[in-house]
């Protein structure tokens, strides 16, 4: 389920990267999730009171994450550069946060798996070349900040869903809450021509919204059944899918080094699936 979520996540990021108006696309993505979850909420058991604080915290972090991700792409970063940096820095941070906050300790093989996956992601980023990395310093900075926010909301939601008593109820209320701030921001302080951007990116935004809801919903569900660091590392294998999409769709070079990186990530996945 987490690997399926990785494919869905890479796909909606590619749609966001390829759009002409990324703010409008993200607004449509959020509104799609809000509408779908508003329809689902009356039919689902509500999350326990102990989880509502985590929903509020995750909503705040998710809003910052979205603005950072938009800025990463806006400042000229490639999909195959920004995406691996943002996603690849998260698993180690999650492992550290989970160890300190939750007290989760990984066995030797699984810890090695997290490290191997991260190594593969570093190799994947390195395949862009030092000249490209130097030219996109701002994009890299925003991408790394995005990675910190990813780790923060991953741990917040892992703690929240475990206290909710209802994974689907938590997912629905989370998407309902975190889907509102960015559209409100865009309507109040966003671009003047937001309405035109919404029309031009309608199909892209609606499809992205469905994919994003399914992708993160699967991840939150998985967090009730596995260690946070393992789920996070498996999820971030989406960078391999993003690199392939960047190569095929956007003409970004893949090459031998990224092929080796993909193989290293795959080896890390095997270790992550070792017995605890």
**Main beta-sheet strand count, sense and barrel state:** none
What is the tally of helical segments?
Answer: 15
Number of strands: 0
Order of helices and strands: HHHHHHHHHHHHHHH
Termini separation comes to 19 Å
What is the domain total for the residues?
A: 1
Q: Roughly how many Å is the radius of gyration?
A: 18 Å
User: Would you identify the regions where 5 or more consecutive residues have pLDDT less than 50?
Assistant: none
Provide the residue-averaged pLDDT.
Answer: 82
Assembly category: single chain
User: What percentage of the residues does DSSP assign to strands (E)?
Assistant: under 5%
**Rough outline:** globular
Derived structural class: mainly alpha
Helix percentage: over 70%
Describe the 3D structure:
It is a single chain. The protein has one domain (2-272). The protein has helices at residues 2-18, 22-40, 52-74, 79-88, 90-102, 108-126, 130-135, 137-164, 167-178, 181-189, 194-200, 202-223, 228-235, 238-248, 255-272. The chain is mainly alpha-helical. The model has no long low-confidence stretch (mean pLDDT 82).
Key phrases:
276 residues; mainly alpha; 80% helix; 0% strand; globular
Summed up:
80% of the residues lie in helices and 0% in strands.
Layout: helices, strands, pairs:
Blueprint: H1 2-18, H2 22-40, H3 52-74, H4 79-88, H5 90-102, H6 108-126, H7 130-135, H8 137-164, H9 167-178, H10 181-189, H11 194-200, H12 202-223, H13 228-235, H14 238-248, H15 255-272
